[in-house]
Structures are given as C-alpha cells and as structure tokens.
Give the backbone structure.
Amino acid sequence: MENLLDSGLVWLRRDLRTTDHAALSNALQLCKKVFVAFVFDTEILKELDRHDQRVEFIWESLVQVNTNLVQLSQNNGCSLIVRHGVASEVITSLAQQLEVNAVFCSHDDEPQSLHRDSLVEQILAQFKIRFFHYKDHVLLERSEVLTQSQKPYSVFTPYKNAWLKVIQETDLQEFPIKQLAHRLAATPLSVHSPLPSLAQLGFEKTALSELKIPLGENGAQHLLQDFESRINDYSATRNFPSIKGPSYLGVHLRFGTISIRQLARLAWPHYLQNKEGATVWLSELIWRDFYAQILHHHPHIVGRSFKLAYDKIEWEQGPKAQELFQAWCQAKTGYPLVDAAMEQLNQTGYMHNRLRMVVASFLVKHLGLDWRLGEAYFAKKLNDFDLASNNGGWQWASSSGCDAQPYFRIFNPVTQSEKFDKDGKFIKRYLPQLAKLDHKNIHAPWLMPKMLLDHAGVVLGQNYPHPIVDHAQARAKTLLRYAVVSTKNQLEQQKQFDLTQK
Ligand SMILES: Cc1cc2nc3c(=O)[nH]c(=O)nc-3n(C[C@H](O)[C@H](O)[C@H](O)COP(=O)(O)OP(=O)(O)OC[C@H]3O[C@@H](n4cnc5c(N)ncnc54)[C@H](O)[C@@H]3O)c2cc1C
C-alpha cells in the first residue's frame, strides 16, 4: 500500500465505459483514491450542428457511466464529474482542485488530440502532477507492428499477417475494474455538479431514441450478444444491405462504450478454428488498427492524399460541381442504390459498408468531385465517424490511399445494385416512391419504357430524378482525370486488371 499514489483522476474521452478499461484499471491499481471525469470539450462542440446525434449518444453513455460508478463504488458518494469547457484547461484545473497525484487516460492519436494531450501533460508537469496514458482504443497501435526493416506497413495483407504474428493473448485480456472498485472515491461537494442537460450544452434532442439505436455500455453489450449468434454468417451476409449481417457496433467502438478487446475475445476462438465468418470479421477489426497506425505514422493524410502525386488531380469546380455535390448529399443522383444509401445516412447516421464504398466511388469517379468533400460530409453525418477509418475509406475509394483500389477500377452503381440489392429491398425501404418497380428495373429506372414507369407511379424528373451523370461518359472522363498520376507501374496494373476482366 505504501507504494501507491494518494489519488488519481481518470479522464474519459473516447472510452465511455466502466468495464475492461485500461486507464481506469491502471488508476485503481496505482492509487488509493480514484476520481473519474468527462469534459464536454467546447473546442470540439463548437464545430458541430445543434442537432448532432453524437452529442446525445455521448450524453446517454455518460448517464450509464455514472450509474455504473455509483454501483461499483457501492454508493459511497462516487459519481462521474462532468464539466463543459476547453478540455485542456478544465482537466488541468480539476486535477489541481482535487489535489491528485496523476491524471490517467487512453491514447487518442488524432493530431488535434495529440496536441491537446501534450499541452495537458506540460501544464500538469508544472504542478508536479503525472500524466499516464494507455493503449485502449485499438488492439495493436502505433509502432507495435512494423516491417523487418522497422518501417510502418502501408499495404494491408502483409500488415495483417504480421499483426497476427505479433498479437498475444495478453493483448486481448480484460482490464479488471470490479476487484478494486472500492478505491473509487466520493466526489467532494465542492467539485460535484449534475450532468448538464443537452440544452445547457447548446444542443437539442435528436431522433436518436426514435431510431432505437441501443445506447451506452448496455446497448453495446446487447448488440454484441445479438451479433454472437450471427458471427459465423458474417462473410456470407455482410455485403447485402437489406440483411442484418454486420454487428452495428461502429458507434460503440468510436465512443468506447465497448472494449475492442472484448470483440477480439469473441472472434479469436472461432478464428483459431478457421471459421470463415469470424475470421473475416476479425480482419475488419484489423483494418481498423491498420488505418489507426497509418494516421499515426502519416498525419499528412488529414487534408492530403496518402500518395502525394494524387494531389495533382484536378477535380470538378464551380457552380455545376456544387450542384452535383448537393444532389449527392440530398440523395438525388437518379441512381437508386446511391440515393437509398444517402437516405440511410441522412435519416439514421449509419451507412452499410458496401454502400459507403459505392457512394464514395460515385462521388469521386462519377461526379469527378474531390474525395475530401465526401470525407467531410461523412464526418458530419456518421454516428461512427472516426478520422482514421473515414479517411482510409475515402482514400481507398479515390485510389489516393495507402492500399487503395486501382484508379481504373470504377464501380458501376447499377451492377453493384443488381448484385448486392438484387430484389431492390433496401432501395424500396429508403425510396418508397420506387416501391412498385420490379426487381429487374429498379436498379436503373431511366432505362424502363415510360408506360411501365407510369404504371408504377414513377415520373422521372418529378418524384424521382433523372440520372445526373452517364456511367460510360463518367468512366472515360475519370480515366483521363487520373492520367496525371498514371505511371508505367499503374498501366501495368491496368493491363493485369483488364486481363482478369476478360
Ligand atoms: C468511405 C468510407 C468511410 C468510412 N468511414 C468510417 C468511419 O468514419 N468510421 C468507421 O468506424 N468506419 C468507417 N468505415 C468502415 C466501415 O464502413 C464501418 O466501420 C462499418 O460499416 C461499421 O459498421 P459495423 O459496425 O456494423 O461494422 P462490422 O462490419 O460489424 O465491423 C466491425 C467493426 O470493424 C471495423 N471495421 C469494419 N470495416 C472496416 C473498414 N473497412 N475500415 C476500418 N474499420 C472497419 C469497425 O470498427 C466496425 O465497427 C468507412 C468505410 C468507407 C468505405
């Protein structure tokens, strides 16, 4: 006991839970008394819309964190301390007010967060308060997986193979909380304040509860249980947006209402038994680690192409380009699968992974618009928005990324629709005006005889748009646009690709 610090403050950020929590577990092991706090950071909130669902998601998660802390501490007066202000200022003054010896938190490798954390560390050091930070958000981070020449990987498959060699059972182990929960300290009255309401934070209640998204730590556990029975169907179902195939845990991983280790512990035994579904799902979790380490090693990807030569590409500009972008955002492209996907995003804050690839490719390679526009729109709308994975996904689609699809691979939105929404079930859910179209014609209504369209109550240009772009023309234009980055090597790739298409 004599080696223990007197007290510590756990600063929650994107780890809004009280189980399997690296920083909280370490604080409880190292300190006699532990306080837990969250700051609604005005530096982040000021950029958001008043109706941002994610603020409400965080708010609901904090309610659960507080309830769990009360229970874990057996009602000894411990509660979650919540503040609203500039996080670096608030957390450092709270640490002084509580007279703690150390502040504990999880790594957050986004450039702005790293900047904030280094500021916090400097301020705390002036007051002789230590700053401990831990890996928690990913399974393997930063430089834990390197090539033989100690360089970061930039291609996924060799990264994954190396990842599978590096990972140890200990990396998946749960960080214990309950056993040491008696060290959770009563919140001093001078510090205690109730959770501010959404209105006090400057936000409004959103459609989150109507959408029935399971919230907080309880919601995440519920989703995981539901997915457990489907995990081995994942590879067969994950590409079809009308089927309940994926886990829908993205938003929970984003805000840390579930531990990534718990997910990996679920997949691991199935992976060891070579079960395909869980193995593919584990691979997706590894993609998440992959993109996080790409951001860590290549912070220039925020705003610039991973492959810098791709910044030479000239994107469409001016009023016509603006119009095309608005049509894409507002689900009015005239391509049913693209529009249904954008409706899903606009109405729910979620979009199926297959559709993220389709709409991203459409924006860049059909409309000729800068991938950064789409990236920013997703950042605003996605509940599970994560800088590293979102940037990775967009740069993959625009071919400018580390392990991206070749620039001449251009998804055909009609073929994608026929393949992945064969019966048009997903399209009909989000575009009810097309509900009477048959499964053959729903993918490209402009090709239908007018009589059949009339019969189905679809009037192009009135209740559903004409296509805003022609696939074949767009394809030809994109190949020209990308010629600026076309190297001998890429032409070689294209030859091979064309051969495989024959
Ligand atoms: C253009 C584009 C943008 C994207 N933006 C984001 C984003 O902002 N945030 C985000 O978490 N994912 C993003 N993805 C990846 C992926 O689409 C989502 O993670 C997934 O659809 C979330 O749904 P789920 O939780 O049901 O996933 P599941 O299929 O159940 O997968 C489980 C988890 O694995 C991770 N994962 C799955 N696929 C990927 C992937 N391709 N890259 C990285 N991680 C992955 C996610 O954390 C996901 O929650 C993007 C993909 C594209 C093509």
Summary: The mean pLDDT is 96. The domain at 308-501 is CATH 1.10.579.10 (DNA Cyclobutane Dipyrimidine Photolyase, subunit A; domain 3). The two ends are 72 Å apart (CA to CA). The chain has three domains: 5-136, 138-173+217-297, 308-501.
